[in-house]
Amino acid sequence: MSSGAFDGKIALVTGAGSGIGRACAMLLGARGAAVIVNDLNAETAQATVEAIRAAGGRAEVAPANVARRDEVTAAVNAALAALGGEIIDVLVNNAGVGSRRMPIEDIDDDALDRMLGVHVKGAFHCAQIVLAGMKQRKAGKIVNISSAMGTVGGRSGSHYAAAKGALLGMTRTWARELAKWNIHVNVVAPGGVFTAATATIPNYADEARTRVPIGRFGQPEEIAALVVFLASDEASYITGQTVSANGGEFIH
Ligand SMILES: NC(=O)c1ccc[n+]([C@@H]2O[C@H](COP(=O)([O-])OP(=O)(O)OC[C@H]3O[C@@H](n4cnc5c(N)ncnc54)[C@H](O)[C@@H]3O)[C@@H](O)[C@H]2O)c1
Prior knowledge:
Elements: E1 10-13, H1 19-30, E2 34-39, H2 42-54, E3 58-63, H3 69-82, E4 90-93, H4 109-137, E5 140-145, H5 148-151, H6 158-178, E6 183-190, H7 196-199, H8 204-211, H9 220-230, E7 242-245
Parallel strand pairs: 1-2, 1-4, 2-3, 4-5, 5-6, 6-7
Helix pairs in contact: 1-2, 1-9, 3-4, 4-6
This protein binds nicotinamide-adenine-dinucleotide (NAD).
């Protein structure tokens, strides 16, 4: 993929103030996309924008809670106007919150609403923001970020697994529904990745040495490389797929 593979394109990355989202935004910016950087945290989102600009790219901030339709729509449309664009070519639905190990009985309505709000409603809201433009142009790429928790489940924290599993079904349905407009939809399912979300888990790095065949968890940039490939013109015959990146921890 050439460094200018996304020249002239506009990408929206949610939750791009940190971790995997920031790595996706940075790589898309480096490959020539103008990036709309969403995050709930306005400061970290702005820091990503500054980093993309410092590397010679174009970016605008769109601070918002993706779970709130009006808030995220207004923020993204303002950023799009600031970039002088009308159509978003690439959407990466990455914003998320991690799961604590939580037994079923402890998952109350607040925990459920929060988890489904950011991952499921957030992805719907952002798809609904970009679709009119993508359909008009008859081109578009949507990459959803699920998790191994969505594909193979986990030991607990089933509200997170529910949200991440929902993204698999949404991706498969959106891919069929949107193919006639040449809009490709895929989902990436990372295993363990070193980010702010996992930094507080005790013995996380040690766990990887025994659990993961390649002997370590991943870096955000390794997930971003896959996401950006799926968002590129090179992935022209791939839609509706779940692509795992987990160092061989889950082979299926
Ligand atoms: N790190 C891992 O091991 C791992 C594994 C599998 C999947 N994932 C998924 O990857 C995605 C990114 O995770 P990460 O590890 O980079 O986490 P992270 O905490 O480093 O980054 C997530 C970002 O999303 C933002 N965010 C949270 N709620 C939001 C909301 N309602 N609206 C907008 N932004 C919001 C946060 O502020 C944060 O900046 C998540 O969807 C996560 O579930 C992570």
